[in-house]
Amino acid sequence: MTIFELRDLIAESLKELGICLVKASFEGRDNSKRLQVLIEKMDGSSVSIDECVVVSRRLAAAFSGIEFADRFSLEVSSAGIDRPLVKRADYDRFLGESVVVSLSRAVGDKKKLYAVLKSATDDGIELLVDGSGVMIGWDNIKSCRLDAKIRIQGKV
């Protein structure tokens, strides 16, 4: 089973709970490998610890017939205040928000940008960095998250 098939299985398992998959990824190596599943409610709000427990049990049952399921531990948590932006729809949803973008290739001398997300296009994203517009291609985005520091301070 590929990670894409696994994500589909997870997403399908969560639908009737009113919860959606934000991100699923394998973390760690070999014997300490874990499947990290980040979730939120369908309306975009955070999930509770109790909801994470329900999802964890639901996924454990869904994985019971999969031959490699015993090779990783399962970790289910809320996407959180520093929610990752994974799909194009995530970028569209969070326009105007402060983000932290890790880059594959440096822009100027920086591989990590703290910016405001201005737009998302077929070519990439436009950021406002220190008052200047910067275009970043999709192929140069290693990861993108909402900036928790700014969100906590309530400046956005």
Describe the overall structure:
The protein has helices at residues 3-15, 49-63, 88-93, 148-153, and strands spanning 19-27, 34-41, 73-78, 98-107, 110-120, 124-129, 132-137, 141-146. The protein has 156 residues and is of the alpha+beta class. The strands form two sheets. The chain has a five-stranded antiparallel beta sheet with strand order 7-6-5-4-8. A three-stranded mixed beta sheet has the order 1-2-3, covered by helices on one side. α1 crosses α2. The model has no long low-confidence stretch (mean pLDDT 91).
Layout of strands and helices, then pairs:
Layout: H1 3-15, E1 19-27, E2 34-41, H2 49-63, E3 73-78, H3 88-93, E4 98-107, E5 110-120, E6 124-129, E7 132-137, E8 141-146, H4 148-153
Parallel strand pairs: 2-3
Antiparallel strand pairs: 1-2, 4-5, 4-8, 5-6, 6-7
Helix pairs in contact: 1-2
The total of beta strands comes to 8
CATH homologous superfamily (4th level) name of the largest domain: RimP-like superfamily, N-terminal
Helices, by number, come to 4
**Arithmetic mean pLDDT:** 91
Q: Enumerate the spans where pLDDT stays under 50 for 5 or more consecutive residues.
A: none
Highest-level CATH class of the largest domain: Alpha Beta
Shape summary = globular
Total domains: 2
N-to-C SSE series? HEEHEHEEEEEH
Largest sheet: 5 strands, antiparallel
End-to-end separation: 41 Å
Radius of gyration: 17 Å
The CATH level-2 architecture of the largest domain is identified as: 2-Layer Sandwich
Strand content: 35-45%
Class from helix and strand fractions: alpha+beta
| Order of strands, widest sheet | 7-6-5-4-8
The proportion of residues forming helix, as a percent range, comes to 25-40%
CATH topology of the largest domain: GMP Synthetase, Chain A, domain 3
